[in-house]
UniProtKB/TrEMBL annotation:
Matching Pfam families: Aldo_ket_red
GO terms assigned for molecular function: oxidoreductase activity
Protein's name according to its UniProt entry: NADP-dependent oxidoreductase domain-containing protein
Annotated family: Belongs to the aldo/keto reductase family.
Family annotation (InterPro entries): AKR (IPR020471), Aldo/ket_reductase_CS (IPR018170), NAD(P)_OxRdtase_dom_sf (IPR036812), NADP_OxRdtase_dom (IPR023210)
Keyword NADP among record annotations: yes
Amino acid sequence: MTDRQLAEAEALELAKRRERAARGYRFVDIPTARLNSGHEMPLVGLGTWKSAKGGEVGRAVEAALRCGYRHVDCASQYKNEEEVGAALSAVFAQGVVGRADVFVTSKLWNTDHGRDRAQLACKKTLNDLGLEFLDLYLVHHPVTGNTGEELWPSMKETWEAMEALVDEGLVKSIGISNFSIKKTKEILSYCRVKPAVNQVEAHPHFRNDDLLKWCIENGIHVTAYSPLGSPDSAEILKRKVTPSLLGHDVVTNIAERLGKSPAQVLIRWALQHGTSVLPKSVHEDRIQANLDVLDWSIPEAEYQRLCSFHPQLRMLDGSYFTNPRGPYKRISDLWDDPEEDHRLAKFIQSQYDLNIVTPTTTLISGHQIPVIGLGTWRSAKGVVRDAVAMAIRSGYRHIDCAAVYNNESEVGDALNTVLAEGVVRREDLWITSKLWNTEHARNRVLPALQHSMRSLQCDYLDLYLMHWPITGNKGPQVEPPIKETWQAMEDLVDRGLVRAIGVSNFSAKKLADVLGYARIKPSVCQVEIHPYFRNDALIEFCKGHRIHVTAYSPLGGAPDTSTIVGRELPSPLKDHTVNAIADKMQKSAAQVMLRWGLQRGTSILPKSSNAHRIKENLDVLGWSLSDADFGRLSDLKQTRMLDGVWWLQAEGPYRTPQDLWDE
């Protein structure tokens, strides 16, 4: 270039800067990384994950580009690419920032893997963003959502589809996100176009050093997402995640000494750690502050302090992608790191009291059932998942479910989460479900069980109960007969699908009928029991036949039980005697009632979705009621709350409550 041409270029650039300034734009010379594809990628970009639709993400993108950002990181799964596209179009239309000035990244979602779907997904993203090409397109996760031992479609097929996008000119560079070293090596073994980038979680509490070092050695650039430690990952993972990086003493002290914000220190750390970085914000002042990390450095001694944080733990560990049926059964399978489960288990143990040992009792089947379980009846969708996960982390090992509760899939998600964390193993848990009334026929019992197992994501159940001695038929006899149903239940044990079988809401007479023909005796009878309904005769019958009794509604029924039964019911939790004993013992009324249930020899199933009460309900093991107080509770007025009158019909088989309960 001649001196004249150089002068003209400088004058043009100066004119552009002045025009930017006039329009409220700031020019920042952001350093770039040269990718193995030959293209330059700015080292600081704006993340758009969890930036809400409704104008928020669009305003953030426009603000970022005005502040000097030239890299915008998107993904189809973020569900906001149309708004990002509108913001880009608005900025381009102003003529100050052109398409060539902005580096735009997007990602292929899990359900769009494979030869045919990848191209369609990319074109949809381009259409939403209003672009003719992407600067970078990443495979979002090494996940397709299938179950089974192998990933399907195969990653090779998906990568070949990504390479075809480069050939067609739809994308300039391709790469991956959330890939381990092993999974990246596999791509390198067959790729024609090498991954240019691996976008992964990286921050002082998870430096990801081994992967970063390996990628550098193999010419793959690493981009760090969640550089601030993903403060909202606790909500995503449904568990506590501490400490907060932004509030960490070391981070805040360094920030104060340098006259910077904690966020700026963490973003600068990422740049000095050798990665590009994607801070996310929707507030214009923080968007600008996050970019003010280019003309200063963290001193070496302070940088090393930030590199020494413990624990080293993924905030976004992908546990939501694990499945006992594969291809990733545990977190360690997803990341190809056997230590991953161990690190997470240690962390969880530091957050929750996992030293509680719930007593068990031996069933006639020979198996040990924990005597305290979490009930899930009337636990609303959207709530029960958190309740089950919290209960298990708090020390519960028994979860009581039923198909008719219509929440077993959420219970299954919670079980999958805690098993993936590695804190408990499947064999540490006792999972109960129940056969609903409409599934009593021999050919319906197995499919009903299998449906519950799929929902609960379990390969077997510890206990399967006949929910009621009801089938819904009209006439003098129950049809199909209980004998047919029980024999089908026995078949489930023979198949190894359930460890023990039993009944719920059966009278002593109906249990005696089952014992008359049972090849495998009922292990458990689950019935209503609390101080307002002791159910003495049934307990004595079961004790004589070695049938364990589990008490449901041990607190006297849910607050809405009156609505269910259509009559006003008393509340044992408000009983004067119960509360007087609770005050004397310095316990809650609920704890007193639960302790009474344990001292009667039954297991109990308190239900709650409140974290405090879930823990409180488990705190009934290290103390006892005196004989006098136990007797006072056992002398309270008796009334059955859930009397089953809704099953009665004039045509039979149960015309009166006496027919149903044989009283």
